[in-house]
């Protein structure tokens, strides 16, 4: 079959079904590019409706570099040509798969499929983190990808070197196109123009459900796969609410994620004559009646600034649960989440947050959007992308693992070859890892299968994965690499050694070999049953006694009191709190170590000691706004004993402020030293509320009115008295054998 004829047939089939077709041009790069021109001509694709995504230059068509493929999100093309010969990655594939409109072609330029697994590219080079090199990187993901191209319906494969058609891209009879003429509900309060803007019946039904947000006490949860128009529905609802004089706060992982929301809201307000102003730089749209639509990043939005009437959370699955929980305090809230997609996982959203939403005072309405906007249901390119990138990977169904216990589960070392050879196992593992992290990308699948520094461990119950951990080998770096890191070079794949070396100025930190727990997840049906702890215990035993010399286990994550307690209970000790917040989670990161050898113990001890030593300084400056409960948990989880070196005069000042008329401001360093010791004690001398007072006032130096208000004291004076009472308990615990303390206490107690 002639290539132009094949392209014409594929385009005709795509048009007839309002679906897309995928054409693979396998072989040499130059031959593939030449063939792509023939395909676009044969398929009758206008030049301005086609885009080449390639590192090459010199095309008459629009050209986008693969590293900028994300700029095409939210746009449509009749044809996209993806050059997989250079700068290609799983992420690029995931971003482009939804850009082609129904009736169009997705063209993939690839090396010969038999040879592709052995070809190294930019993505594979990025996996060769020190001390590994390119020869250590596997080709399992590319093997998996090539297999899907050879077997999936709707995928045509042409050998451009031999000029032969290996697959013609035939599919079974396509389904009906679906409802493309939605009508508004018989009764509606939003303007008719908003419903006329809906492209599918799903969108219209979703918009009708979002009308509930006009009234306080309502929450609407919208779940959809990519390309279903949920962001457009959110934008139409935002515009309607603003026209109704509501103050609508929109949040998303970034403004770019919410751009469609603002575009649709602006268009609707303009069409209905209600647009007063659109300030793109300030990310705010104002309606003529006083309503507005404004954007704030998740950490800021979680504070509900300026008391919005409604909060709309787009890509909610990509926002940590701690922040999502704050939005349940809004008068009304809408949550929009992707079920299957690299932006995040709706399943993770449902598992980790939905129970909290149901416990709130909001009345929750659920909406599911299934009808694609850009193409008909059953589209073969979409189903191929799900299969190739495991976007629809899920853990085992609940009944299969509901009886799992730490005693019944079996510990398994899962090699990358084993994962690649067992699709069922891979899907269960990857499905759980997706739930463990608020943002999982297709690149993560490639890393899981091919990165030489990654290892996978799991607990299984009757053959099904119930808990899984992804480990990253770090450290063991040569002198030259350590010196470069110390002098500011970024060394990939070595997060803990990088922080210890470049930020904490420990040039020897990358000598010991460690394994960092990148992710750990337990099946939602058996959470809080001890399986995660059992898995960590097995990993520790394996690494402590294995053939490879492993000096420590480590972890780094956005710190919450619950997570700090979990890792502390499993033998990990705090050695660092970051001094900047994560842009998306709004949390400070904790680094923790569990030493396994004398070298690991030395690394741990010097950083644990220094963490406590510098604590008063960082808490009074960069960590002044840190949650006192996070600070309490981090300090208590630090396996080090801060020295108590107070002069008699300092002891007398503390006793005077605790039992007499003295003031702590006379010698604040003495009070900080004692506070640090009290917070680090496994048997604390103070109540949790008193400990929060030690953190907020003594260590963070926050104003008395603010501390009193946050901790629920009636007045600053009450808080001052409580601080004196707290230090009375501290003095009794740590000054019992100090003569100056006994003498001073006797004066006041008599």
From TrEMBL:
| Chief place of localization | cytoplasm
- InterPro entries per record: Acyl_CoA_acyltransferase, GNAT_dom, P-loop_NTPase, TcmA/NAT10_helicase, TmcA/NAT10/Kre33, TmcA/NAT10_N, tRNA_acetyltr_TmcA, tRNA_Cytidine_AcTrnsfr
Residues covered by the TmcA/NAT10 N-terminal domain: 7-159
- Keyword terms: Acyltransferase, ATP-binding, Cytoplasm, Nucleotide-binding, RNA-binding, Transferase, tRNA processing, tRNA-binding
Annotated N-acetyltransferase domain residues:
429-539, 547-596
What are the TM regions of this chain, as residue ranges? none
Query: Which residues of the sequence carry a binding annotation for acetyl-CoA?
Result: 520-522, 562
Residues covered by region (Disordered): 164-192
Q: Where in the cell is it found?
A: Cytoplasm
| Chain residues that bind ATP | 203, 374
Question: Into which EC class is this enzyme placed?
Answer: transferase
Q: Which GO terms describe its biological process?
A: rRNA acetylation involved in maturation of SSU-rRNA; tRNA acetylation; tRNA wobble cytosine modification
EC numbers for this chain: 2.3.1.193
One GO cellular component this record assigns the protein to is: cytoplasm
Quote one Gene Ontology molecular function term.
tRNA cytidine N4-acetyltransferase activity
Q: What is this enzyme's catalytic activity, as reactions? A: a cytidine in tRNA + acetyl-CoA + ATP + H2O = an N(4)-acetylcytidine in tRNA + ADP + phosphate + CoA + H(+); a cytidine in mRNA + acetyl-CoA + ATP + H2O = an N(4)-acetylcytidine in mRNA + ADP + phosphate + CoA + H(+); a cytidine in RNA + acetyl-CoA + ATP + H2O = an N(4)-acetylcytidine in RNA + ADP + phosphate + CoA + H(+); cytidine(34) in elongator tRNA(Met) + acetyl-CoA + ATP + H2O = N(4)-acetylcytidine(34) in elongator tRNA(Met) + ADP + phosphate + CoA + H(+)
Q: Where is the TcmA/NAT10 helicase domain?
A: 221-392
| PANTHER family the record matches | N-ACETYLTRANSFERASE 10 (PTHR10925), RNA CYTIDINE ACETYLTRANSFERASE (PTHR10925:SF5)
Q: What does this protein do?
A: Catalyzes the formation of N(4)-acetylcytidine (ac(4)C) at the wobble position of tRNA(Met), by using acetyl-CoA as an acetyl donor and ATP (or GTP).
Q: What is this protein called?
A: tRNA(Met) cytidine acetyltransferase TmcA
Q: Which organism is it from?
A: Halogeometricum rufum
């Amino acid at each position: 079959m002639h290539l132009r004829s094949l392209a014409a047939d594929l385009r005709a089939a795509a048009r007839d079904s309002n679906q897309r077709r995928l054409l693979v041009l396998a072989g040499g790069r130059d031959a593939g590019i030449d063939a792509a021109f023939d395909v676009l001509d044969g398929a009758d694709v206008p030049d301005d409706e086609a885009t080449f995504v390639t590192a090459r230059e010199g095309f008459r068509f629009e050209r986008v570099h693969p590293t900028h493929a994300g700029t095409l999100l939210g746009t449509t093309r009749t044809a996209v040509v993806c050059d997989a010969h250079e700068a290609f990655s799983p992420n690029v594939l995931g971003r482009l798969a939804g850009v082609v409109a129904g009736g169009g072609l997705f063209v993939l330029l690839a090396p010969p499929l038999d040879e592709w697994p052995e070809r190294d590219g930019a993505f594979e080079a990025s996996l060769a983190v020190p001390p590994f090199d390119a020869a250590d990187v596997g080709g399992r993901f590319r093997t998996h990808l090539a297999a899907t191209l050879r077997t999936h319906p709707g995928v045509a494969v042409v050998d451009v070197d031999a000029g032969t058609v290996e697959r013609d891209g035939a599919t079974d009879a396509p389904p009906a196109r679906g409802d493309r003429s939605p009508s508004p509900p018989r009764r509606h309060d939003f303007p008719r123009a908003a419903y006329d803007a809906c492209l599918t019946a799903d969108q219209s039904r979703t918009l009708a459900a979002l009308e509930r947000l006009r009234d306080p006490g309502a929450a609407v949860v919208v779940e959809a796969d990519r390309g279903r128009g949920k962001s457009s529905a959110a934008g139409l609802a935002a515009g309607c609410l603003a026209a109704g004089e509501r103050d609508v706060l929109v949040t998303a992982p970034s403004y770019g994620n919410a751009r469609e929301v603002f575009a649709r809201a602006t268009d609707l307000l303009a069409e209905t004559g209600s647009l007063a102003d659109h300030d793109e730089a300030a990310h705010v749209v104002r309606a003529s009646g006083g309503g507005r639509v404004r954007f704030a990043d998740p950490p800021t939005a979680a504070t509900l600034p300026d008391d919005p009437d409604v909060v709309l959370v787009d890509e909610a699955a990509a926002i940590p649960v701690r922040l999502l929980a704050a939005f349940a305090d809004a008068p009304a809230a809408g949550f929009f989440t992707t079920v299957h997609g690299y932006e995040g996982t709706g399943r993770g959203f449902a598992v980790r947050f939905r129970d909290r939403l149901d416990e709130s005072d909001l009345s929750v309405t659920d909406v599911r959007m299934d009808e694609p906007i850009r193409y008909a249901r059953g589209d073969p390119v979409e189903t191929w992308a799900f299969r190739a990138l495991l976007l629809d990977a899920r853990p085992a169904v609940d009944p299969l693992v509901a009886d799992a216990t730490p005693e019944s589960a079996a510990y398994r070392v899962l090699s990358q070859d084993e994962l690649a050879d067992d699709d069922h196992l891979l899907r269960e593992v990857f499905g759980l890892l997706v739930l463990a992290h608020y943002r999982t990308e297709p690149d993560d699948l490639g890393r899981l299968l091919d990165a030489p520094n990654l290892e996978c461990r799991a607990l299984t119950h009757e053959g099904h994965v119930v808990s899984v951990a992804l480990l990253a080998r770090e450290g063991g770096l040569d002198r030259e690499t350590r010196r470069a890191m110390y002098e500011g070079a970024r060394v990939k794949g070595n997060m803990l050694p990088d922080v210890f070396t470049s930020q904490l100025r420990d040039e020897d930190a990358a000598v010991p070999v460690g394994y960092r727990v990148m992710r750990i997840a337990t099946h939602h049906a058996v959470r809080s049953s001890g399986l995660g702890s059992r898995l960590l215990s097995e990993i520790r035993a394996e690494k402590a006694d294995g053939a490879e010399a492993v000096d420590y286990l480590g972890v780094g994550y956005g710190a919450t009191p619950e997570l700090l307690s979990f890792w502390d209970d499993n033998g990990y000790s705090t050695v660092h709190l970051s001094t900047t917040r994560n842009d998306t989670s709004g949390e400070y990161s904790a680094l923790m170590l569990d030493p396994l050898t004398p070298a690991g113990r030395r690394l741990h001890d010097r950083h644990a000691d220094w963490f406590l030593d510098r604590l008063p300084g960082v808490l009074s400056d960069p960590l002044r706004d840190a949650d006192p409960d996070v600070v309490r948990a981090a300090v208590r989880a630090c396996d080090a004993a801060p020295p108590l070196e107070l002069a008699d005069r300092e002891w007398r000042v503390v006793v005077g402020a605790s039992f007499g008329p003295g003031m702590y401001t006379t010698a604040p360093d003495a009070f900080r030293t004692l506070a640090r010791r009290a917070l680090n004690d496994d048997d604390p001398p103070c109540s949790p509320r008193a400990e929060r007072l030690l953190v907020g006032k003594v260590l963070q130096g926050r104003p008395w009115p603010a501390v009193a208000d946050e901790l629920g004291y009636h007045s600053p004076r009450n808080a001052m008295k409580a601080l004196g009472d707290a230090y009375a308990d501290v003095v009794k615990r740590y000054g019992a054998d100090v003569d100056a303390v006994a003498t001073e206490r006797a004066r006041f107690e008599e």
